[in-house]
Amino acid sequence: MALRGGEADFASFTAVRLGSGAVMLIVLSYFFSKKSAYPKGGSWVSAIFLFAYAICFTFAYLGLSAGTGALILFGSVQLTMIAVSIVRGEKPRPVEWLGLITALGGLVYLVFPGLASPPLNSSLLMAAAGAAWGMYTLRGRGSGDPLTDTTGNFVRTLPFAAVALFIFLPNFHLSTAGILLAVLSGAATSGIGYAIWYGVLKHHTATRAAVMQLSVPVLVAVLGIVWLGEQATMRLGTAGVLILGGIAITVAGKR
């Protein structure tokens, strides 16, 4: 809404998103964290991956359709997380592979009709965003205090966001609506959402964590129907069954 509506440029949107997320998490950490101060959590490496994801994702979507971007992003996330987990010695069971293939097939089925030849630069940026998010997720699986670690990671992204904002200052454009949308994206869906994500990661293998993220395009499609008046189709229903069914198969593979 912010980028396609011309309410914000990508660097400003990213900076406000990360900044508002950091502020929200600092407040939450003060009241709910196990540790006494937020700088004790997180790491610079995780912060770099988080910032790389945020900036590449936002920039890439200036030149990609939603369906194309989702396919590139989540395909890159799956490949990154599963490849790294296998290198580290994790061996997915056959039923987990079945779930992965089913869920990926559902995602391709959902977005394939809208695919076109995307711009190469935007495609590479979105693939980089997916790889960065995959690495950020893998680093969060060992978090003992998800809220504190997520707070520390967000705070550490702010110098990088400031540099990006300075570099792209000639393109600066941020309306009141753009600010509100960026704050919503940062404080609520990113800050709080990522803390919850770090909290549940320790209960899942990297393969299951990778596959569960395939639920995002289905959720986006459903919310598009509810909030944006988009049309519900049989294709969406079929793809939703495949994706969510594949996730269920993979999660059940633990047993």
Q: What Rg is obtained from the alpha carbons, in whole angstroms?
A: 18 Å
* Class based on secondary structure composition and strand pairing: mainly alpha
Largest sheet: none
Let me know the number of strands.
0
- Count of spatially separate domains: 1
Helix content: over 70%
What features would you highlight for this structure?
single chain, mainly alpha, 10 helices
How would you explain this protein's 3D organization?
Helix 1 (10-32) packs antiparallel against helix 2, helix 2 (44-60) crosses helix 6 and helix 8 (206-212) packs antiparallel against helix 10 (234-252). The chain is globular and about 50 Å long. It starts with 9 loop residues before the first helix and ends with a helix. With 255 residues, it is mainly α. The chain has one domain. The protein has helices at 10-32, 44-60, 66-87, 94-111, 120-140, 146-167, 176-201, 206-212, 215-228, 234-252. Helices cover 74% and strands 0% of the residues. The model has no long low-confidence stretch (mean pLDDT 84). The chain has ten helices and no strands.
Task: State the gist of this model.
The protein has 255 residues and is mainly alpha-helical.
List the helices and strands and how they pair.
Blueprint: H1 10-32, H2 44-60, H3 66-87, H4 94-111, H5 120-140, H6 146-167, H7 176-201, H8 206-212, H9 215-228, H10 234-252
